Amino acid sequence: MLKRFAVVKDWENTVSAEEECIKRIVEGAAEAGYACDVVDTSYRLISNRKKITSATHDFVLHIHYCSGKAENIFSIATLWNPIKFYHDWGYRKSADTLMTNDAFVQSGSEETVRQVERLSFNGTYQNSEFLFFYPSPASSLFQPQIKDEYKLMYCGINWEKLTGKKGRFDELLKKLDENNLISIYGPEIFHGIRPWEGYRNYKGEIPFDGISMIKEIAKCGIALVISSENHIQDEIISNRLFEALAAGAIILADHNQAVKKLIGNNCLYIDTSDSEKCFLQIKSHLEWIKENRNQARELALRAQEIFNKNLSTKVSVARLYDSLPYLKEANKKHREPELDFSLTIFYILDRKLDIEKQVGTIRRSILANQHNGIRHVVISNFELPEIIESIPADSFEFRSINKPNVRYGDLVLPYLEKCDSEYFSILIPGEEAYEDHFISIIKGIQKNQALSGSSDLIVRRKTPDATSFIGIQWIEQCQFTSISGAFVHSTTLIDKQTLSTISQLSRCLSLPFVLKAGEKVASSKGFSLKVNLEVPKTSYESETLRDLRLRDYFGLLNFSKVLPVQETRLRRFYNKHYKKIVILKKYPFLWSSLKVVAKRFL
Fold it and tell me: What phi, psi does 152 have (nearest 5°)?
């Protein structure tokens, strides 16, 4: 164990709660005796842009559901957001990107756990284990104190005001403000709007530095911890509860069941369903605190004791490291086929493409998929390049045909004809197989008594702001770009007809076998094939496959000559001038109307 891990910073140029959370994870790791580095979405150190590997770090932690696995390193995702957020950002893309990770940590929400169990149902890649890891400060910073004067502290963005809608807590916060019972913190200007305009107890912004929020809560002495409907429904807790615990504050919380599960009766509860009744409850609690300062302090002490024992990031990191060997081993066992098998993997090396990058990808794929039942064969349209010596000689075989312009299908054809393994797979240039990619597919084939098996994909998407790695199901990507290595096939599918078709293809080498297998295509449900080079299909290959007259089970023959993501001129303009354009959000009706008109062109 290296005792070093990394956490992904998804938005480098944006100040956000995620950035503050990252700082706390780094601090908590240090207090627990581990090192945590901050990396960008491509797994490069923020400090020097040097790429990390499994030889330098034990795992990578993703703290946002839109953050996908970028390299073949054990990755862990946090389940810290309500599922409604996935739908708001685009459910399919968000959920599939979440599932590119190897393991998951939760903060107590059964709904988010059920979501992952549903997404991985009957899959053979991830063995779902859900450790507890909370979005908390590293450790407690202030002990509960008896104060001469307490003040109720609340911090938020007031999201509803940004959309022109009435906020869920508007009436309650206004009553508390009118009676000078609260100190409100949050952004002064957000998307061109002043969300707290009109509140006389608005105190200003708090920097995302990991400690200022806790200091302000400690000064006030009482924290108002209230949740959105989405958080209550999925039993998700915001960071505010953990910050209040670290600050040693007395907590006034709504009836989010997650709070009760974590700290029980060691806080004061309020019912936010009725603003008037809730205001009176808060007023009563504040009077009780004033008259019973010692008892109130005892309440905060007991809550902080629970935090120090179970909820701090320091504890979460230590707990995760204690279970890390088990998590990795459990995944290994879960992917292992129950029956013996033999598999030949053909890797195509093309002299017309970047040789160094191709060999690097093949090398990583071979080393990540070592198994007694697997045979690796590299096939090239030119002589053996010296750089291939970087692959351990005893781990693969090399074959070459000195025909520079030969189609990939013709290149692999003579070896497919003689393939004596039970299964085979073909990787075209640009495809990288992550750890246990092939055996997890074979397990799915055996489990479902299928003729072919598949994985899903990780693809790179670049925008003006960032590079992201997202999950895409093969059935979707197959309609646009060439995919081959996502599949493993039974050699019983090899016959004269499919071989004749293969000889005419350059990229879609697996589709004749997928179409022939029909509905008997199993899925590992693992996003274990990374596509480094997306190549659009051509009508030539489409028509060649149609010659087979096979039933089009999946709509795979409706090929497009363009990639699914194409930036329009309006999209490029929007990305370039985003900071200026979002000022229009201060006019909600105009903003909504423009969105409706522009959506079809973006």
Answer: -80, 130
